[in-house]
Amino acid sequence: MSEKIESEKTNHLQKKLVLGITGGIAAYKCADLVRRLKERGFEVRVVMTVSAAKFITPVTLQAVSGYPVHQDLFDAEMEASMGHIELARWADYILVAPATANTISKLVHGKADNLLTTLILASRASLLVAPAMNQQMWANTVTQNNIRVLESSEVIILGPEEGEQACGDLGAGRMMEPVDIANQLLMLVNKRNILANKKVVITAGPTVEAIDPVRYISNHSSGKMGFALARAARLEGAEVELVSGPVALCEPAGVNMTRVTSAAEMLEVVKQKIKNADIFIGCAAVADYTPVEVASQKIKKNQELMNIQLKKNSDILTWVASQEGRPYVVGFAAESQNIKEFARKKLENKKLDLICANDISCQNMGFNSENNQLFLIDCCGVEKQLSVASKIVLAQQVIQEIELRMKTD
Ligand code: PMT
Fold first, then answer.
1. Which own/partner pairs from 32-39 qualify as long-range (CB within 8 Å, at least 24 positions apart)?
2. Does residue 146 or residue 186 have the better pLDDT?
3. What is the 206 CA–ligand 1 centroid distance (Å)?
């Protein structure tokens, strides 16, 4: 894995990043976060609030970052070595992780009541915020409004993710995993706005086909690959329409997202969104079949054998590719054998410009995993293997590959 990360490093000059840690339980993950950032070529200086120091010690962060940790606005010794204004000027990026609801609110109101908030006000660095809090605090209208204000001021919001929380609650509010935060930062550093003025429509996640009011047919798609593509396209300046089946992921910042359930609904939304699109990426694991009839009442389990008649769903990719003035059409192929051969057939049959094949028989790749490995084949027969990496990194590579091909078309 460290070899992989080496190759993920860019040849840019070392970027300077201030990591601002605020007082949430996720602060304990910051030692790992610093390590991941350094692996990706960032020089990291840590600033902590008083509350953050209750969750992780400054000594730990000093050890992993290799620099003294800044805590107090009025620390004469620190100010003598690198004062807060100097630190504000030094930084290319300021990342607040975890960012509590309290600190987010202070950022919205321009408060400067501790070293971190003062530094942020005094800096021109790009600001990124990774919220982490109880799900109810995150869902609170006040917090949501604060997040919108930050987004409208060009602050990049990373996460939060859904899942079990330290307090026992379940829902959105967990800090994004350190490796994902570090990868997002790397993408930001590498971005070249290659999709400025382009509209991209992306499908993601599974579709859910109802059998009766309680049962359905679906698959294990988590939406992670499609959401990563949406983020990557957005970061490269595109207007992004994300059409997603039911997943437990939050709407990526700056992306217009429509949640759907069935394949038929997904097709209808794609038909609406595809107008004037430059690129269409079909990453959703669309159910191939749907029940002919949906029972209006729960089906009783009084038979030993049961037959459910299924009919084929319309193919969304094929529909998009058959439109006059079609966008650049990219498909995915989830294969468990003869990967290249089956992917090539899908590329031809569906008349795609590019197909990204993933081997779903490999452990920890493909469906519902953080990592993936993609084999690309385009309509000119050019093939390219993208090696194992996080879906976030792969998404960025796929976006670059698309842009390269659109340029030469
Ligand atoms: O969501 P994750 O957990 O991150 O997992 C990612 C993924 C494995 C789902 C993704 O990388 C992937 O491979 N998506 C396509 C899965 C799939 O349905 O493959 P397929 O070979 O059955 O379909 C081929 C292509 O046709 C796909 O682009 C699919 O979106 C599209 N299709 C399929 C059927 C249909 N009715 N309409 C379609 O548009």
1. 32/178, 33/97, 33/178, 33/181, 33/182, 34/61, 34/64, 34/65, 35/64, 35/178, 36/178, 36/179, 36/181, 36/182, 37/182, 37/185, 38/64, 38/65, 39/2, 39/5, 39/9, 39/182
2. 146
3. 8
